[in-house]
Amino acid sequence: MAFRKVTDSILYVGVNDHEVDLFEGQYVVPNGMAYNSYVILDDKIAVMDTVDIHFAQEWLNNIAEALDGKKPTYLVVQHMEPDHSASIAEFLKVYPDAIVVGNAKTFVMMQQFFGADVAPNREVVANKGTLELGSHTLTFVFAPMVHWPEVMVTYDAADKVLFSADGFGKFGALDVEEDWDCEARRYYIGIVGKYGAQVQALLKVAATLDIQIICPLHGPVLTENLGHYIEKYDIWSSYKVESEGVMIAYASVYGNTKKAAEKLAETLKAKGCPKVVLRDLARSDMSENIEDAFRYGKLVLASITYNGDVFPFMHAFLHGLTERSYQNRTLGVIENGTWAPTAGRIIKSAFEKSKNITWLDTTVTIKSAMNAANDAQIEAMADELMKG
Ligand SMILES: Cc1cc2nc3c(=O)[nH]c(=O)nc-3n(C[C@H](O)[C@H](O)[C@H](O)COP(=O)(O)O)c2cc1C
């Protein structure tokens, strides 16, 4: 069966993608990706969003099976990112009479992607505007920058369903069992992380609705324990510390900076630190590193000085943090340089515009290889990290 029931009248018609190499051009997805789409069966039938163009035919087949000969009245477009919108034209070839529902910004983007002639039958909705299907009434709530400007989510009061667009999505196809939190966090921090304020605004609206089911555009339909997922979104979007622990992220060429990072990790563990995450920035997944930096409250950045700058992987990491509004954290620095160690100054300057960053008093400055004074600095840094 190519579709499945979410409720008696809402059917899942999405697809799994195990072919994508990098999602959104940068994220590894070892368990693939799901592009979700839903059909709401009523006097008038609505299809909620489309899928990635490579799966257009499979998705259209799912819809045809779900409709069993009926025709959809509406195609609702909540988000114009191509993993959800690229099959609009294919859909309209099969169902040319369908009315495309979106907001003013949706249709500007649709014209840019597909040209002026696409979707001649359209209904432009306003924020909090509604669409009557029969027993279902859809209410559209604009969610600009969660995570594109045209994004809107949709509430169905009949079945108490929130169609949440990219909100509450995760990496991973639906035919693979895996933990929600981990891949939802990596997805959220990576893709939506910058837009915490906008997610907070959406959560405030969601709190006023009776929501029993969340239907996102990626990841599983959420039907139970919704408080857990909403709490996670609240933590992530308010940049709160999720888990106690220290992350040590290092960039080293000849292994001396690595040794210092390892020594700090061992010292912290010996002192009873609840969690120490040690990462070689050149040899680990950048999106997981960024995810963990947001997860834990304390972060030590260890880098060589490299042509008067920091090592390129550290550079990418720092940018990955600050562009996602990294804030409310305690940071420390281990720098190394053979003739003029300036990595620490560069690391600190990267956070000049970041909110509520507390720097450890101890900075470890290594000149080529660790010496006795560095050992003492590492010890002092560990003691500081263990405080409060
Ligand atoms: C290509 C290259 C450029 C470097 N540029 C600098 C520099 O501008 N200033 C400096 O003090 N050290 C510089 N170094 C030395 C590194 O900081 C050196 O790798 C470090 O002192 C030893 O740490 P490691 O064993 O962790 O690599 C450079 C090293 C390399 C390989």
From TrEMBL:
<dbReference type="InterPro" id="IPR026816">
    <property type="entry name" value="Flavodoxin_dom"/>
</dbReference>
<dbReference type="InterPro" id="IPR016440">
    <property type="entry name" value="Rubredoxin-O_OxRdtase"/>
</dbReference>
<dbReference type="Pfam" id="PF12724">
    <property type="entry name" value="Flavodoxin_5"/>
</dbReference>
<dbReference type="Pfam" id="PF19583">
    <property type="entry name" value="ODP"/>
</dbReference>
<feature type="domain" description="Flavodoxin-like">
    <location>
        <begin position="246"/>
        <end position="386"/>
    </location>
</feature>
<dbReference type="InterPro" id="IPR045761">
    <property type="entry name" value="ODP_dom"/>
</dbReference>
<protein>
    <submittedName>
        <fullName>MBL fold metallo-hydrolase</fullName>
    </submittedName>
</protein>
<comment type="similarity">
    <text>In the N-terminal section; belongs to the zinc metallo-hydrolase group 3 family.</text>
</comment>
<dbReference type="InterPro" id="IPR008254">
    <property type="entry name" value="Flavodoxin/NO_synth"/>
</dbReference>
<dbReference type="InterPro" id="IPR001279">
    <property type="entry name" value="Metallo-B-lactamas"/>
</dbReference>
